[in-house]
Design brief:
Keywords: Hydrolase. It contains 17 helices and 23 strands. With 527 residues, it is an alpha/beta fold. A 7-stranded mixed beta sheet has the order 3-2-7-20-21-22-23, with no helix packed on it. The protein has a 6-stranded parallel beta sheet with strand order 11-15-16-17-18-19, sandwiched between helices. Helix 1 crosses helix 2, helix 4 packs across helix 17 and helix 6 runs parallel beside helix 7. The chain is globular, with a radius of gyration of 22 Å. It binds zinc ion.
Length: 527
């Protein structure tokens, strides 16, 4: 391939950033890595200002009454309300009334015709990492494919080293680069129907991601990637790799700036990478700041078969045991990929109401067995645990919440050997209301209920795939996907219409992203 010459130069830092398959640079990545770029300054095309509004059609005005009429509604509420021919009245930023065709529709200013469409709550992706600054070395023919550090139980030393590097990337970006990268990265999620993201640590900054969310009109809880130690394989002591206080200061700053932001769209969620990446001092700092703000906080917890022994050898406690000893198993904890807890720990996680989140569509890409090896997440679901699903993050678009729901529906039913383990409405709940709980926003979003924020997704179902089925949500999960999302509303504002942004030009956003990564990669490479 023409890109090979750049590979040796790029590999030193780029390799560390790769979250998935390793191989060689694509032509685009090589060009970007080798380019000094025209964009060393703080402005890119359209970036200094608000994203340029495109002709996206009318927006409901302040306090406007909009009727979404004729859709097949899955409300995603506790009653599991399903209305085949529905109407939903949105007034301003809230849902004001819900009904069926048998009931008279209320008066309104605008009608959105949803006949032949599914109407779902806005999808909530509580565990995500913005990582689009990293080049993609994947080869299309799978040549040179090797097991990732996540495979075969996990290489704890290699992962610790990689995560330590990721925790430093955000501060190497200019704010303008960070915003441009985050806008494109987050647009791929919004386009897929995700209306609220939970950042569990990114190769970007909280400020840039919050700004991108405001520009795109979506919700996010921002974070910073906390990781201050690593554990070499076979070690009895950890190695300190970052300044604990500096990372705690970042949490304090982002909470001060963004938690309960006046826009109503942004909050904070301090997070650490996991028990094998944090000292006790760092976990205590995480606990204390989350307590101070009564905010959710997040970690990957018991995610890999090999992690327990590595952590126990250094700390004398297991990963879950460390969090429990510090009083950190609470209903504000978002615990990700939790498949390797002991029986006693499993009971503690259930009784303390910890939010369990998993990313079933991502494991197969990395060679993890998180759903099937222990079946523990399926058990949490069966035992009434608070389980949400998510996409996780990667260095390119790897699917949205529709694909995560599909993998939850099919994967748990298969792993549990029973079709009632995760029916479609439960998969939807994992992608909506349970995610809202994990983000501490259950009273605000996560279902289509009167009084909640008007966050909705409209999906086309008027085609050959749906002709013989009775269950359009199932057909969407097994035969549909992110591309079928037609419209997205957040807080009563239409942000995606006809599969395109209603607020900005997608091509311009991509151009800005490319300029920003060229500039950022060139600088990082020189260091
Ligand atoms: Zn993750």
């Amino acid at each position: 391939m023409i890109c090979c010459m750049k590979h040796a130069v790029a590999a030193s830092w780029l390799h560390k950033l790769m979250l998935s398959q390793s191989s060689r640079p694509t032509p685009l990545a090589a060009q970007a890595a080798g380019s000094e770029g025209a964009a060393h300054g703080e402005t890119f095309n359209g970036l200094a200002a608000e994203p340029r509004a495109r002709d996206g059609g009318p927006q409901p005005g302040e306090g406007a009454r909009t009727l979404i009429k004729g859709g097949f509604l899955y409300a995603g509420d506790d009653a599991n309300t399903v209305i085949e021919n529905s109407w939903v009245l949105v007034v301003g930023d809230r849902i004001a009334a819900i009904g069926s065709a048998q009931q008279p529709a209320p008066e309104c200013d605008h009608v959105i015709d949803a006949a032949g469409k599914l109407v779902l709550p806005g999808l909530i992706n509580p565990h995500w990492h913005e990582s689009f600054v990293a080049p993609n070395f994947e080869r299309p023919d799978d040549a040179g494919l090797e097991p990732t550090p996540y495979s075969n139980g996990g290489d704890i030393e290699a992962l610790g080293s990689m995560f330590a590097f990721i925790s430093t990337v955000g501060q190497k970006l200019t704010h303008a680069e960070g915003v441009a990268i985050a806008r494109w990265s987050m647009w791929t999620q919004l386009r897929s129907g995700t209306t609220a993201l939970g950042d569990v640590g990114s190769a970007n900054t909280a400020d840039a991601m919050a700004q991108a969310a405001l520009d795109l009109g979506m919700r996010i809880r921002v974070s910073r990637w906390g990781s201050d130690i690593m554990i070499p394989n076979g070690a009895k002591e950890f190695r300190r790799i970052a300044d604990t206080q500096a990372q705690a200061d970042d949490w304090a700053a982002l909470m001060e700036t963004w938690n309960d932001h006046s826009s109503g769209l942004i909050g904070g969620m301090p997070s650490v990478m996991g028990a094998f990446g944090s000292s006790d001092e760092q976990l205590i700092a995480l606990r204390d700041i989350a307590d101070r703000y009564q905010a959710p906080y997040a970690t990957h917890l018991a995610p890999l078969r090999n992690e327990t022994a590595a952590v126990q050898a250094v700390f004398g406690r297991t990963p879950v045991g460390r969090f429990d000893a510090l009083g950190m198993l609470t209903d504000r904890l978002l615990a990700v990929h939790t498949a390797y807890a002991s029986e006693e720990e499993y009971r503690r996680l259930l009784e303390t109401g910890v939010n369990i989140c998993h990313s079933p569509a991502h494991y197969g890409m990395l060679g993890e067995a998180t759903v099937s090896e222990t079946g523990q997440i399926g058990r949490f679901i069966k035992d009434g645990g608070h389980v949400s699903c998510s996409t996780d993050g990667d260095i390119s678009y790897i699917g949205g919440m529709p694909e995560a729901m599909r993998a939850a529906h099919l994967g748990h039913n298969e792993a549990q050997n029973c079709n009632t383990a995760c029916p479609p409405t439960l998969a939807l709940r994992m992608a909506t209301l349970n995610g809202a709980r994990a983000l501490g926003w259950r009273d605000r979003i996560g279902s289509i209920e009167v009084g909640k924020q008007a966050d909705l997704v409209v999906i086309g179902i008027d085609d050959w795939r749906y002709r013989l089925g009775n269950h359009p949500l199932r057909t969407f999960l097994v035969a549909g996907g992110s591309r079928d999302v037609e419209a997205v509303m957040v807080a009563g504002r239409i942000v995606v219409r006809d599969g395109r942004s209603a607020l900005f030009d997608e091509a311009e956003l991509l151009t800005d992203y490319r300029l920003a990564v060229a500039s950022a990669r060139a600088r990082i490479q020189r260091k």
